[in-house]
Write a structure and sequence with these properties.
The structure is a homodimer of 335-residue chains. The first copy, chain A, has 335 residues and is α/β, with parallel strands linked by helices. Helices cover 35% and strands 25% of the residues of chain A. In chain A, the strands form two sheets. In chain A, strands 1, 2, 3, 4, 5, 6, 8, 9, 10, 11, 12, 14 and 15 form a 13-stranded mixed beta sheet that branches. In chain A, strands 7-13 form a two-stranded parallel ribbon. In chain A, helix 6 runs parallel beside helix 7. The longest helix of chain A is centred in the N-terminal third of the chain and has 20 residues. Chain A starts with a strand and ends with a strand. The interface between A and B is large, with 57 and 57 residues.
């Protein structure tokens, strides 16, 4: 690899994305991307007795589907990188406890999916791995219950709030293959904008997205239009607008090529999700479903994925803390 | 690097541990290792208004102390790997939000410290990094409050329970230097022994420790006595005995060279911690304090550190789930 600038890396040999899989919930099934997902559930329980167990099953089944599509024996997979939003990341550990693959647990909040692809790419490029799994998940009901209020209360949600995506995405990264390829990445720093409103995550994370995006462009010497599309993970409508403004103040116009996975996931008017989708599963499923297919069909040839995470919990909010954000970027190209 | 066997790696160029720092709480100050820690606190709050904020301060100060000891400018540090036990790892993200260093959040429960050293070593060996920080923390009061009962209740603890260490350890890993060196590692798989008693973590994690230890020895072709000492992270008295039995059934006798950081941290009789210490901070501080000094003084020349983690949360226990364990191993040598 070649380090460029302060915090970006260009891989010696682009890392192949051999296969992906995505499973989403019933609300995502009603959204505009439904035809791109491998499986859409009819309800949030999927036959399990709790939302947490359903989320573990999402992880388990998405990973096993991705492995199966890749045609690689799971005994030939060197590392599994995974994480989620549940306390102590139990969706990943329970979902993957039977895989029998060395397991590296990650926590980057909703940035976890790209974080996992960065770590996997680095280990493949550094010759530590030939085949790896990357996965992340979230679940609307388990997240609401844990971070906000019991769903049974039917609390009103403010207009700036986002809707946690129920879904899990998984990608198999390999040393060899025909692409699409991961060609470079920019790991992010923690950026705290001082936002304290836990119902306005998009605003809290936009500063981190700006920091990583501008850093990526500066380090690589690229203009935004090097990419066919730049996608953030889950800034939603509000965070998306803030990001456009922030990078514009740094001299970059991204308006025409930029979108957000949380914006893409749901219909704005009729699905009533307010500021759009969020959660680790948002970028994980939009990438593993929609974006990967666009790359395979060469409708996109160069994509910059920037996953954004809010590094807080309900206790920190109750204690009056602000919400630190993080964003990790990875570029994926058809070569 | 050279992959040996199924899941172990020998580094091309041993990775240098340039400096470490450790800060512990008042109970650890009364334990047998107190003289090895850089700082021992007088109380669990350290001037903060909550235990969570005190834990963040532990992380912040241990990292800044380690950076300062290493003499490396923080602008020359490529990655920070960190994690803890609090929901959504807030001790790490709040403690490190001002570092301005690319941040990779990890969750491996109490295996996090060695997990961070594995990722940092791989990135240094793979030429992605020159200097890195590895850190992990735990706090008795924030952990009891989150995982068990309000401390104010004064609940009785069963004899198999362990005492979460209040402390943070940090290590600076670099490409060049005079050692001690990380020479190899074995990342672990998730192993679920079916234990459901959240007050018997040692038993729940012993199977993972066995799996990783036996895998490490088989992969490298080493006998246990290749090492001066083999140390697990926090199996405690009960888990330690189980591990000795389990590996004995595989034909390895580790009795004379094996110990556990949770056993080392407290006096068994007079400190009333029952089965010993636990928490991410246990192996992090015992390594960063005691073990690192032993290596520097060449009293130990070859050490195998096996950090163990229980991948559960309080919801999974309430839902009747068993406790999956994981263990990551790293060997550190004076060359």
């Amino acid at each position: 690899m070649k380090k460029v600038g302060n915090q970006s890396y260009i891989l010696n040999k682009p890392v192949n994305i051999a296969a992906t899989a995505s499973i989403v919930g019933p609300k995502e099934k009603e959204g505009p991307l439904h035809q791109f997902f491998d499986q859409c559930l009819e309800d949030e329980f999927w036959g399990e007795s709790s939302w947490e167990k359903a989320e573990s099953k999402l992880v388990k089944e998405a990973v096993s589907m991705a492995i199966s599509k890749s045609g690689i024996a799971s005994s030939n997979i060197d590392f599994c990188f995974a994480g989620d939003l549940l306390n102590q990341c139990i969706a990943s550990s329970f979902g993957l406890r039977e895989t029998n693959i060395p397991f590296i647990g990650l926590f980057g909040a909703c940035s976890t999916f790209v974080e996992s692809m960065i770590m996997a790419s680095a280990l493949i490029d550094g010759d530590f791995a030939t085949n790896t799994i990357c996965t992340a998940s979230s679940h609307f009901c388990s997240a609401e219950k844990q971070f906000r209020f019991p769903l049974e209360l039917g609390n009103q949600r403010p207009p700036s709030s986002q809707w946690t995506v129920t879904g899990s995405g998984a990608a198999i990264l390999t040393k060899d293959g025909t692409g699409p390829f991961i060609t470079s990445f920019t790991p992010g720093k923690i950026v705290d904008m001082g936002i304290k409103d836990a119902n306005n995550m998009g605003a809290a994370m936009a500063g981190a997205a700006e920091d990583t995006l501008v850093r990526h462009l500066t380090d690589t010497g690229r203009e935004p239009n090097y990419y066919d599309v730049i996608l953030t993970g889950d800034l939603g409508y509000i965070g998306k607008d803030i990001l456009i403004d922030l990078v514009s103040s740094k001299g970059y116009n991204i308006k025409d090529i930029y979108n957000d996975c949380g914006v893409l996931m749901f219909y704005k008017e009729k699905q009533d999700t307010h500021s759009g989708g969020s959660g680790c599963g948002c970028i994980a499923t939009v990438f593993s479903g929609f974006v990967y297919q666009m790359l395979q069909e060469k409708k996109y040839k160069k994509v910059l994925m920037i996953a954004t995470g809010a590094l807080m919990n309900s206790t920190s909010t109750q204690q009056g803390e602000s919400i630190p954000g993080i964003a990790h970027a990875i570029s994926i190209e058809v070569l």
